[in-house]
Amino acid sequence: MADPNDRTPVALIVGAGDFIGGAIAKRFAAGGYVAAVGRRKADQLAPLVEEIEKGGGRARAFALDARDEESVSSVFAAIERDLGPLEVVVYNVGANVYFPITETTSRVFRKVWEMACLGGFLCGREAARVMLSRKRGSIFFTGATASVRGGKGYAAFAAAKSGLRALAQSMARELGPENIHVAHLVIDAGVDTAWVRERIAESGRDPAQLPPDTLMNPASVGEAYWMLHQQSRDAWTFELDLRPHRESW
Amino acid sequence: MARGALVLGVGAEEGLGGALCRRFAREGLEVFAVGRTQAKLDAVAQALGAAGGRAHAVAADVTSAGDMAAAFEAVEKETGAPPELVVYNAGNMAAGPLAEMTDAFFEAAWRVCAFGAFLCGREAARRMVPRGSGTLIFTGATSSLRSRPPFIAFAAAKAAERAVAHGLAREFGPKGLHVAHVIVDGVIDGELVNARAPQIKEKLGADGMLSIDALADTYWMLHSQSRSAWTLELDLRPYKETF
């Protein structure tokens, strides 16, 4: 149980997995927030929590299935009760799968949508509920190239990510006047993580042979989330894109 | 060596151009304020100087290739290097009913937004790209994405300016030049609007307009981004804005 007098604000990163969630959590912890990190298997978050704590920050791991309404509401309630006021919620659950359309099963299509879109709704709605009571906070959604463009083999992913973007846009219009900053970040390139390097290797290329700056540094991406949270409400950004300088698009 | 910031499209102190100059001077850059009206530029430069910054007033026509080259030249002459940060902030919010619009009116909007942006981008490509680093930011508007009366001439020009920015980003990003396009999707709480149409502030209230200093913060943030994760485009609006 946390000290009831400690009102250090909390930043919840939903989907603090192998992509950029860890970097976002580290950035907010460095900025003085308690980093609440969630993913389905909480024990996999132990190294991240340990790293943040070693660096002098505060972090707590939560087992969270973003597709499950009850799981979402109980984690939000536990954070508000035990950890502190939620001031930042980042929805960062990835569901990047590649399937030609004829090989995309309805199960895959539904599951990708549940992870990329439904989970964003459940977490976004819960975030809105707690933040509206205080009339402050930031709700950020991680988007991808597929949020704005359906690519070959990405029918399921693009459909879900477009849905998430539409959700974010609707929430921004509704919650902005209530002093809640909703933003959508279009990550328009690969980020330098073990997961991305594995995917590159799977596609038959050697990730060690990539030219420098082909992949984004996760810390640089995390910085963009932090910067958005620092913006004055007199000039808020809803959407921005991010790519490394070498990217061609 | 001094680091130069070139801000093109500076008018009154209490406008976005003036706020950008102040923000960049605060970060230690030597500021070159470019605009049409010498007296206004002098006021901006004097205020920066009084606050301990280094600033120069450069009267120029941003739609003239010769003037554009001279503005970049002035930075190189004074600081010994091309500017590390350039903002193309010239624009005129040209508004008028289409049926009565003259050819000259339409063309003038295009010259200041699109043609000037091209001249600026070309000069940046020639002078900044060889150094392999630097930032070039264009000020866009709601009209960059959406055309509606009475801003048809302005929207046609701003859409073209956006195309210039996007093309520059794709061509020169890999060569180290960070090109960004900022979509200012609200009414700026600055001299341009407040002098021309004071009723707007009355209607929107202070919170309903974009603060020039808050806008300038985001321009500086863009310049501060690591080249590992650059933003080409973002939008900005006050929290109360309906959009």
Report on this structure:
The complex is a heterodimer of chains A (249) and B (243). By secondary structure, chain A is of the alpha/beta class. Chain A has a single domain, classed as Rossmann fold, CATH 3.40.50.720. Chain A has helices spanning 21-30, 46-54, 69-83, 106-134, 145-148, 155-175, 194-202, 218-230; strands spanning 10-14, 34-39, 58-63, 86-91, 137-144, 180-187, 239-242. A seven-stranded parallel sheet of chain A has the order 3-2-1-4-5-6-7, with helices on both faces. The termini of chain A are far apart. By secondary structure, chain B is of the alpha/beta class. Chain B has a seven-stranded parallel sheet, sandwiched between helices. The longest helix of chain B is centred in the middle third of the chain and has 25 residues, at 103-127. Chain B is globular.
Summary, kept brief:
The complex is a heterodimer of chains A (249) and B (243). Chain A has 249 residues and is an alpha/beta fold.
**Largest interface: chains, residues each:** A-B, 33 and 36 residues
Q: Mind telling me which CATH architecture of chain A this is?
A: 3-Layer(aba) Sandwich
Number of strands of chain A: 7
How many discrete domains of chain A? 1
Describe how the helices and strands are arranged.
The complex is a heterodimer of chains A (249) and B (243).
Chain A: E1 10-14, H1 21-30, E2 34-39, H2 46-54, E3 58-63, H3 69-83, E4 86-91, H4 106-134, E5 137-144, H5 145-148, H6 155-175, E6 180-187, H7 194-202, H8 218-230, E7 239-242
Parallel strand pairs in A: 1-2, 1-4, 2-3, 4-5, 5-6, 6-7
Helix pairs in contact in A: 1-8, 3-4, 4-6
Chain B: E1 4-8, H1 16-26, E2 30-35, H2 38-50, E3 55-59, H3 65-79, E4 85-88, H4 103-127, E5 135-141, H5 152-172, E6 178-184, H6 191-196, H7 198-204, H8 212-224, E7 233-236
Parallel strand pairs in B: 1-2, 1-4, 2-3, 4-5, 5-6, 6-7
Helix pairs in contact in B: 1-8, 3-4, 4-5
